[in-house]
Amino acid sequence: MNSTANRTSKQTQVLVARSLRRRYRSEFIFRALGVLAVSLGVLAVFGLFGKIIADGASVFRQSYVTLEIYYDPEIIDPEGGRAPEALATADYQALIKAALREKFPDVEGRANLRELYQLVSSGSFLSLQRAVVANPSLIGTRAQLTMPADDTVDMFVKGQVGRNAPVAERRLTDQQVAVVDRMTAAGILTMQLNREFLGNGDSRDPEQAGVRGALMGSLLTLGLTLLLSFPIGVAAAIYLEEFAARNRFTDLIEININNLAAVPSIVYGLLGLAVFIGLFGMPRSAPVVGSLVLTLLTLPTVIIASRSALKAVPPSIREAALGMGASQVQTVMHHVLPLALPGMLTGAIIGMARALGESAPLLMIGMVAFIVDVPQGLTDAATVLPVQVFLWSDLPERAFIARTSGAIIVLLVFLVVMNATAVYLRNRFEKRW
Amino acid sequence: MTPALTLLALLLLTAAAFWIGRGRSLATVGGPRGIRDLHSLPGHYGMLTALWCAAPALLIAVLWWMFQDQVLMGLVTSHLPADQRALPPGEFGLLVNDLRNVIAGNATMANVPPATAAAAAEYLQLRSAARLALTVLVLALGIIAIVMVRSRIRPEMRARNSVESAVRAVLFLCSLLAVLTTLAILLSVLTEAVRFFAKVPVTEFLFSTSWSPQMAIRADQVGAEGSFGAVPLFTGTLLISLIAMLIAVPIGLMSAIYLAEYASRRLRKVVKPLLEVLAGVPTVVYGFFAATTLGPALRTLGENLGLEVASESALNAGLVMGVMIIPFVSSLADDMITAVPQSLRDGAYALGATRSETVRQVVLRAALPGIVGGVLLAVSRAIGETMIVVMAAGLAANLTANPLEAVTTVTVQIVTLLVGDQEFDSPKTLAAFALGLVLFVVTLALNAIALYVVRRYREQYE
Questions:
Q1: Of the candidates B192, B418, B440, which has its C-beta nearest A263's C-beta?
Q2: Is the pLDDT at B359 greater than 90, yes or no?
Q3: How buried is residue B314: exposed, middle or buried, by Cβ count under 10 Å (0-12/13-18/19+)?
Q4: Residues in chain B within 8 Å Cβ distance of A386
């Protein structure tokens, strides 16, 4: 202290000026670090979304080959009986092959023809089959039919593999490239909205694989989850907020709910596997089990949101109702609940958005199978969008990278819609007292 | 009578019960004019009748449905020919599977052995009988209840009080579900884990360093038991979580400080929700990004620097997980920083402190307990995170602290052990539950510590 007292004011000013420089420098550094952190965060957002959109946007359009198909009675139904079994099992691939040969009569030789056939998706015959089984009068007629090109052609046309890339990487031979060029020139190879991606279930052929099955699975699962977790969550919140006495047991329930919100989702999967599947013998891979697990998972979120919505209703409302002679239950049901409902709904939607992106617990209960059929009911084997993303991301075909990103885009669109609804509801119905 | 039809019938009966009860209450006081002689509103009498009609019947129906399949299956399989009942469990399971397929209509009777077809036919017959019996029982119960309640309705009956206590009871049961969930998690994980520890000693699981839970193809195979030392899993989890926290804590904390203390209101309004978007992105998306974009990029970078980076390195998973956790840390830190009263900052400024000095020496210290709590919660998030590590970290249980090598985590192993059809009894499946138990206990403990820290060290500002 003594040295400070003996300093002249001049010396002090010099000291302060020196330390100020240092302090301002550290202020600048601190601030720069802040800017850096924020920019890194924002960069991560744009990097993530940019990459996904750049990879996935191309998937919504796909190359299609239009061919004139002759529904040859000799091939479809040589016996002429139009028996449904015969129609269902006929060799429709042969019709497509014939149409291709007709279009490119100069391609000859077994190997060359095989290469030609490879250009059209090998799953295309299914749509022919469906059309004929539904409408046998097509047999014997000619019709223009548009079918997806093979994924190698699609990637080549979109420029995702270079024209001069080595054959092994391009996965198209020179002859095939020549045919593709001729198809483009003739206008029979066109880019169109990818109906397969939005309308089909899963498939091993990238050009036939779609998100419809996963989307239906997600809708079924989430629908039931909402039906279960919203009423239960609201009821629990009402009890805790409006009726429960403040005692140790209510404290226990409260602590419990807060803890459950922090339990890793995969543990809920273990619970589902052990209890719903192991103990109750419910079917694997079914949306019912998925939604039961997700109900338990989202319940804490819904309860916490509903409680804060109830807290936001001013006590004067309750007092007025009680003063008019309403019972406690009537007060809550007729006056408090309607006022708190928009807030509760917002919380529920946010909980559902979380459930929509959840996949780990669903892996545990087997919603991770290769499922071609679009699920129709709550007990059909199904998968959900994020799990479909997980499944596709594992596949070796390069075309599936785009499909995975496309599925992510679909998933994100749903998330954005749900969150936007929640925000809209909040802004529209939120009352300030 | 399908279950849906039974429910529909019960629903209609319940609606009828409401109107019967309501009408009866009005009739006892001589029509709507006498309503002031009633203790409760007519609707309350209706609801009471409806409750007595629906609740017991529904309870019976649910119990019935829970056990119907097991009972019927037991009956049907006990009627199978003796030689089939004596089959080893595996083959018997296949037979039961066939049976279920026929029953569900996924296979036709013609495609299975006659005994199975007969059993399936018997099952279907028994099931339709059981369903009919249930419907009759449920409706009879409902009607009896209506008649009994109706005969007891008097003007002075306290119908509202009864209905309201029923409502309260239902509300209470719903809130009890939270406790039940915790119990169910604990019990289901614990029982399976105990079965696992009967086969593999706890000490081996917790302290042994070799993890290779092979699938035994034959029971007498060499090494069929595998080894279940979970230490490499724990270290792998910690390594990845550590990397994630090294990313998330500085970035999250600094951006929270910047947005709360420096940024203009407009910037804050734009950037804060933008960062929170990161929390809403499903974790599969992060996993996909790590596996297809960041992983290869890190590998190329490593090659250029002369480092060997595994394509499923801990660094890759940790980095992406860190990004996922940024908004978690930043929004919690933001709450804590904005909760620090302005007067403390003003005091620091008055003493001549610069902004950063105020933040570091006053604001952060006041907000520290909350921030520590938030970070602990973030750690528990990182430990329990599954999809990112499943997609981006490896399966190899390496005991290493090198972030460039592949490691595996507890959650990855749970997923790999349980995905796909497996017997419920093998140590391999049970090991997943033991890991789940560890995960549950650790995250719960972290959560409890976090709450304790926040409560114990929080400064109270009046």
A1: B440
A2: yes
A3: buried
A4: 282, 284, 387
Beta carbons of A411 and B176 less than 8 Å apart: no
Tell me: the pLDDT tens digits for A40-63? 999 999 999 999 999 888 889 889
Higher pLDDT, B369 or A86: B369
What is the rounded distance in angstroms from the CA atom of residue A95 to the CA atom of residue A74? 10
Residue B64 distance to chain A (closest CA, Å): 13
Q: Dump pLDDT digits (tens) for B158-179.
A: 999 999 999 999 999 999 988 8
Interface contact A33, partner B, CB < 8 A: yes
Residues of B in contact with A259 (CB under 8 A): 182, 444, 447-448
* Residue B294 C-alpha, separation from nearest chain A C-alpha, in angstroms: 10
Q: Has residue A433 got a pLDDT over 70?
A: no
Residues shown for chain B: 462
The residues spanned by each domain of chain B are: 3-157, 159-193, 227-457
pTM of the model: 0.88
C-alpha distance from A396 to closest chain B C-alpha (Å) = 11
Q: What pLDDT is stored for residue A1 in this prediction?
A: 47
Q: Helix B364-384 vs helix B314-339: angle between axes, to the nearest 10 degrees?
A: 140
Domain covering B227-457, topology: MetI-like fold (1.10.3720)
CA geometry: angle at A395 spanning B215 and A49, to 5°? 120
Q: B7-28: per-residue pLDDT in tens?
A: 999 999 999 999 999 999 999 9
Q: How far is B402 from chain A (nearest CA, A)?
A: 25
Chain B within 8 Å of A415 (Cβ-Cβ)? Answer: yes
Q: Tokens at residue A360, please?
A: 């780990």
* A257:B178 CB<8 A: yes
Q: Is the pLDDT of residue B145 over 70?
A: yes
* Euclidean distance between CA atoms A339 and B325, whole angstroms: 34
CB–CB contact A271 B189 (8 Å): yes
Q: How far is A256 from chain B (nearest CA, A)?
A: 6
Contact A389 B291 (CB under 8 A): no
For residue A145, report the phi and psi dihedrals to the nearest 5 degrees: -130, 135
How many Cα atoms occupy the beta-carbon half-sphere of B436 within 13 Å? Answer: 35
Residue that wins the pLDDT comparison between A166 and A80: A166
Instruction: Tell me the angle at which helices B231-257 and B314-339 cross, rounded to the nearest 10 degrees.
Output: 40
Interchain CB distance below 8 Å, B448 and A259: yes
Check CB contact under 8 Å for A296 and B181.
Answer: yes
Residue B192 has pLDDT above 60, yes or no: yes
Asked if the Cβ–Cβ distance from A38 to B259 is below 8 Å, we say yes
Which residues of chain A does B185 touch, with a Cβ-Cβ cutoff of 8 Å? 263, 267-268, 270-271
